[in-house]
Amino acid sequence: MLNIFPALTCSLILLGVFLSSVKGFAAPRILHAAAAVRPPSLLHAEKSKDGEDNFISDFCIGTNTFWKGLVMKPVRDLVEIRPATITPDSPIIDKLTSPPELPGIPRPVWLTILGSVPTGLVWYGYYKFSVEEELYQYELQQTGKVSGCGGYGTLFPFVYGILIGFPASFLHIPGGELFVEVAGAWILLGQVNLYNRVNELCTESEDMKSELGLTEGPLFEWWAVLPPPLDVVVGLRQVHFLSEYGE
To answer: How far are the Cα atoms of 23, 76, 82, 87, 171 from residue 103, in angstroms, in the given order?
Structure first.
């Protein structure tokens, strides 16, 4: 039924990986270690990077704001981010049901499995929402810019796409399949971006790399498109290192 899904998804994924690569190359080390007097070409490169970062940040903030506005207020109130209250000694049920916090809640692999398996991965969707929203708010607080669409902008396009697309496809309504395809591509691109951001966090300083026992980023972004069960293994690796960073 979804005969163009592989082509559309792969195209969007490759676009996401390309944009991630451009972002990485757009800030060569020479700009960070430049002398006081910089050639015009370097100044132009810095301005270009600032413009690119602003565009990405504005897009992500706009996306998060738009989709947050489509969520019912009682639901928004339940998952509104709050200052950190969860501690290592907090009961497991509190860790599983807590709204996103700032700083983020460390959620180790065992806790993620405990919440995900009995709920048929429903809780993993909540985990995805929470970590994306925590990273979004953390970046906004630290720099005023963001590199991800937050919990609302990452998860809810996927949720609405599936809720609309599957019934429409079942009823043979034109466009139903496209909704499902775009929803799948969007969540995969979000995962690619999440892996990139986790790499940046885990390698932000030599002390952090030493503490985590790393010499380079622990993830490859393209791992997000591996088929099951390999994607699950990679996902758990992301869960582990993000939790270790949070601790």
So the answer is: 26, 19, 9, 11, 45
Tokens of 164: 């609309």
Instruction: Say if residues 50 and 27 touch (Cβ distance below 8 Å).
Output: no
- Give residue-wise pLDDT tens across range 49-84: 677 789 999 999 999 999 999 999 999 999 999 999
Handedness of CA 157, 158, 164, 165 (dihedral sign): positive
200-209: average pLDDT: 94
What is the pTM (predicted TM-score) of this model? 0.79
Cβ(116)–Cβ(123) below 8 Å = yes
Nearest Cα residue to 16 out of 157, 181, 220, 221: 221
**Cα separation, 193 vs 214, whole angstroms:** 20
Is pLDDT at 114 greater than 70 in this prediction?
A: yes
Tokens standing for 200? Answer: 């940046």
Residues 6+ apart with CB under 8 A from 15: 189
Distance CA 52, CA 243 (A): 29
Residue 146: which residues within 8 A CB-CB, separation 6 or more?
A: 57, 60, 61, 64, 136, 139, 140
β-strand partners of 18: none
Nearest to 86 by CA among 118, 124, 132, 134: 134
Mention every residue, 6+ apart, whose C-beta is less than 8 A from residue 23. 52, 56, 147
Side-chain half-sphere exposure of 146, counting CA atoms within 13 A: 24
Q: Which residues, in sequence order, are CB contacts of 217 under 8 Å at separation 6+?
A: 198, 199, 200, 202, 203
